Amino acid sequence: MSSLPQILREKLSTTPSGRLPFAQVMELALYHPEHGYYGAGPRKIGRQGDFFTSVSVGPLFGKLLALYALREWQALGEPEDFTLIEQGAHDGQLAEDVLNALDGKPLRYLIVEPNPKYREAQFKRLGDRVQWVESLTALQSGPQHAFFLCNELPDAFPVHLVRWNGQSWEELFVETDGTEAFRFISGDCSCAELADEMKHLPHDLAPGHTLEINLTMLAWIHALAKAAFRGAIFIADYGLDAEEFHADSRADGTIRRYWQHQTDGQVLVNLGECDLTTHIHFTRLIDEAVRHGLTQREYDLQGRLLGRMAMPWLQSLEGRPPDAATMRQFNSLTHPALMGRSFRCLILEKSGR
Ligand SMILES: C[S@@+](CC[C@H](N)C(=O)[O-])C[C@H]1O[C@@H](n2cnc3c(N)ncnc32)[C@H](O)[C@@H]1O
């Protein structure tokens, strides 16, 4: 039985240059249909998995999103075709939490899911409470009104790595080190889109400073902007603004591997068995969104934005405290030392096409 490292070695041996852009290696490591960390099927997230997400904290995150979506639906005049659309739905947990909190309101739920193994797991959990499309392209023909949501989606997109050598930016490629292991080697940039992005990078950083370029995220927000719907787009993820990526303390970039709640920068080790992930470049994401006609409604630390989203719910409690489990979830999602500061939320407004 072959493994992801074996598959990569074979691929490198049939590539004339003997090396591949890191983005292609990350794509294989995460999405190879049999041996990729995500491609093989939804893994456990939470205590028994490799990392926590706001979804694995408990149902409160979904409840707050459901309440926000309901307000969006009302603001749009309660259109009949209003649909909640989720991408990166994993095992369907967030969809279930949102649907349970909708309190019987007749809103549709659509999952954008390219992987049949994930659709199967989502169907097991959700049955006919949701519908599916394979890609964002399907959204170009409708619905006309929607609230799009995703949690920790673009952090799982494959990225290119680039390094400043003191005089110019170079791309990082992967090759074998002559034994069983892999190593990085720098070289000229592998594609025109990457070269365009590199033109906007600063030149006043220390030699060796490494950054990720998430071209998939840029194409993704463009595809979302082309969807037919009018409404809003909610994106929650860990991420930084431009100047934070350029700080000396980030000189190694943000690419990390996660395994059993441990994290390090050895991203070419145990390929296929660990999650590989990067911080979102929110400044670049917002620029690209605006370039394609979307408008920034809110962008803030998760703690502050979820805090504001929670206000109507907290007011509805009329001074009665939520139960202890819900309080713990609220604390995990919003406390600056937990998920409140490292995670950020972006809400974009979208006019119809
Ligand atoms: C870090 S996990 C987050 C899972 C879940 N949203 C949560 O917060 O617990 C990233 C998820 O994004 C999914 N994903 C990556 N690219 C995708 C794409 N193009 N379309 C749909 N899902 C995708 C992966 O399969 C994985 O389930």
Molecular structure report:
The protein is of the alpha/beta class and 353 residues long. It has two domains: 4-37 and 159-201, no CATH class; 60-153 and 215-350, Rossmann fold, CATH 3.40.50. The chain is built from twelve helices and 16 strands. The strands form three sheets. Strands 2, 3, 4, 5, 10, 14, 15 and 16 form an eight-stranded mixed beta sheet that branches. The structure holds S-adenosylmethionine. Residues 38, 45, 53, 55-56, 87-88, 90, 94, 112-114, 151-153, 156 line the site of S-adenosylmethionine (SAM).
Which keywords apply here?
353 residues; alpha/beta; Rossmann fold; 2 domains; eight-stranded mixed beta sheet; 24% strand; binds S-adenosylmethionine
Structure at a glance:
This protein folds into two domains: about 80 residues, no CATH class; about 230 residues, Rossmann fold.
